[in-house]
Amino acid sequence: MIKDRFGRPIKSLRISVTRRCNLNCIYCHKEGTLPTNYEMSKEEIYRICKVAKEFDINKVKITGGEPLIRKDIVEIISALNSLNFKDISMTTNGVYLKNYAYKLKKAGLDRINVSLDSLKNHIYKSITGKDFLDKVKEGISKAIEAGLHPVKINMLILKDINENEVWDLFEFCKEHGAILQIIELVKIDDNSDYFEKYYKSLDSIEEEIRKKAEKVMERKFMHGRKKYFIDGSEIEIVRPMDNSVFCANCTRLRITPDAKIKPCLLRNDNLVDLKPALKCKSNYMLKKLFIEAIHRRSPYFGKYKYVV
Ligand SMILES: Nc1nc2c(ncn2[C@@H]2O[C@H](COP(=O)(O)OP(=O)(O)OP(=O)(O)O)[C@@H](O)[C@H]2O)c(=O)[nH]1
Ligand SMILES: C[S@@+](CC[C@H](N)C(=O)[O-])C[C@H]1O[C@@H](n2cnc3c(N)ncnc32)[C@H](O)[C@@H]1O
Ligand code: SF4
Ligand code: SF4
């Protein structure tokens, strides 16, 4: 298992297959990617994943923009499935999920995360810009029916907007057999005004959850995130902001839609462009660039941020 200079093993690849999206969430970090017209082909994604497997990277997450906007998304999942990853997952806004759930499962997708910040139509619309709440709910039901497991519901907490909906969303997840994932708003250059206005620390929410929990677990190789077990259901908490423990346990390498390795969500000064190497027949250069990108990783929050 390959490790970076800070002893962090590289266990998963997080691939943004597009930057395009059918929603317009006000807070969106677009996985930290920069605007581009280039979108990797299915073949390029496959080749990058094949090289990742050679480094013992056994988990892959497909994200966006919105991954279900790509016409060839089912073929992409099939191609990855042929590489025998232990875990293929996707994060989606769920708008197109109803039609895709069975096809994705059949192609080899193991599990799915669906973003849903509110169960109220007007709030959902004010966050995403679109009136698609019912479509997302239908998508979630189909994903569960199709056997994608687990289905996680991503709820990003915004002050004075949806902070009082945690327990409604928890009940919704319980009814559907899904896991609730509560997410802290992350600041990026593009959302700093929004951040000042709507950032909410998760301290009080986590404390409330902790008091109700029968059991707590830590995902050691996933940022040390905490999972709380309540009434036969689960809540996972994602708290990246100023969190050196989160970064110290970061085991992901990211791929941008324009075929660059992105060592950290919050940086764009250390990208490694794979496009020239993708033009070569052999994978030799690709492998060298993977090693270079792993070498460029450093925990963003904590004392090592500026180590080069
Ligand atoms: N700062 C930071 N945030 C991350 C990182 N990975 C995921 N996140 C955030 O975590 C939230 C949930 O991401 P998802 O795409 O649902 O996936 P995940 O929960 O990270 O991964 P799985 O548990 O494997 O499904 C999103 O807000 C992501 O931006 C990371 O490496 N750094
Ligand atoms: C960037 S989206 C891409 C996948 C898909 N379009 C979706 O919305 O699920 C992936 C996840 O990042 C989360 N996210 C977006 N902007 C964020 C921010 N500023 N802070 C924390 N999480 C964010 C979203 O809520 C979503 O769950
Ligand atoms: S659906 Fe996902 S990618 Fe699209 S704007 Fe919302 S968070 Fe961003
Ligand atoms: S180092 Fe920290 S901020 Fe950067 S990707 Fe990893 S967990 Fe996220």
Automatic annotation (TrEMBL):
Residues given in the record as [4Fe-4S] cluster 2 binding sites: C247, C250, C264
Cofactor dependency: [4Fe-4S] cluster
Family under the similarity heading: Belongs to the radical SAM superfamily. MoaA family.
Keyword Iron-sulfur attached: yes
UniProt name for this protein: Probable GTP 3',8-cyclase
Top-level taxon in the UniProt lineage: Archaea
Keyword line: 4Fe-4S, GTP-binding, Hydrolase, Iron, Iron-sulfur, Lyase, Metal-binding, Molybdenum cofactor biosynthesis, Nucleotide-binding, S-adenosyl-L-methionine
GO BP terms: Mo-molybdopterin cofactor biosynthetic process
KW Heme (keyword) present: no
EC number per UniProt: 4.1.99.22
Molecular functions per Gene Ontology: 4 iron, 4 sulfur cluster binding; cyclic pyranopterin monophosphate synthase activity; GTP 3',8'-cyclase activity; GTP binding; hydrolase activity; metal ion binding; S-adenosyl-L-methionine binding
Record's catalysed reaction(s): GTP + AH2 + S-adenosyl-L-methionine = (8S)-3',8-cyclo-7,8-dihydroguanosine 5'-triphosphate + 5'-deoxyadenosine + L-methionine + A + H(+)
Family matches, as Pfam families: Mob_synth_C (PF06463), Radical_SAM (PF04055)
Co-factor binding comment: Binds 2 [4Fe-4S] clusters. Binds 1 [4Fe-4S] cluster coordinated with 3 cysteines and an exchangeable S-adenosyl-L-methionine and 1 [4Fe-4S] cluster coordinated with 3 cysteines and the GTP-derived substrate.
Binding site for GTP: R14, K61, T91, K152, R252, L253, R254
Pathway: Cofactor biosynthesis; molybdopterin biosynthesis
Encoding gene per record: moaA
Positions of the Radical SAM core domain: 5-231
Binding site for S-adenosyl-L-methionine: Y27, G65, S115
Amino acids binding [4Fe-4S] cluster 1: C21, C25, C28
Xref: NCBIfam families: moaA, moaA_archaeal, PRK00164.2-1
Function: Catalyzes the cyclization of GTP to (8S)-3',8-cyclo-7,8-dihydroguanosine 5'-triphosphate.
